[in-house]
Amino acid sequence: QVQLVEVGGGLVQAGDSLSLSCAPSMRTFMGRRTLGWFRQVPGKEREFVAAINWYSGRTYFADSVEGRCTISRDNAKTTAYLQINSLKREDTAVYYCAARLGDYSANWAFYDYWGQGTQVTVSS
Whole-angstrom Cα distance, residue 29 to residue 54? Predict the structure, then answer.
């Protein structure tokens, strides 16, 4: 059922750094070209955060996090990572890892493999 698993959520302090990891099932991930991170606040639309091309390593970032965000994968291409520095209260959300067949897209509707999400709460 769960095709990707996110690890690293919790309560963090404003100004601190957030580190999340995503471990896709290689069987279900097979053939997917893009891995993305999204976040969502209850009652709001799911929001793009960052994405990486799984094979080339090319990265993409939302304006809201560009300059303070890193997305990466390990050398074996088994795990993806997301880091956001200088956290703000508005970074509070449920963070999701997702994958899609095609190239980069910031549209959550184009992704067809999803994790269960992990809650990140930024306190002041």
Answer: 10
Q: Quick one: which H or E segment has residue 26? A: helix 26-29
Strand partners of residue 29? none
How confident is the model over 18-36, as pLDDT tens digits? 999 998 776 656 678 899 9
For residues 69-87, give the mean pLDDT: 92
DSSP string, 48-65: EEEEEETTT--EEE-TTT
Token representation of residue 35? 């891995």
The rounded distance, in Å, linking the Cα atoms of 83 and 61 is 12
3-state helix, strand, coil in the chain (%, to 5): 10, 50, 45
Half-sphere CA count of 57, side-chain side, radius 13 A: 6
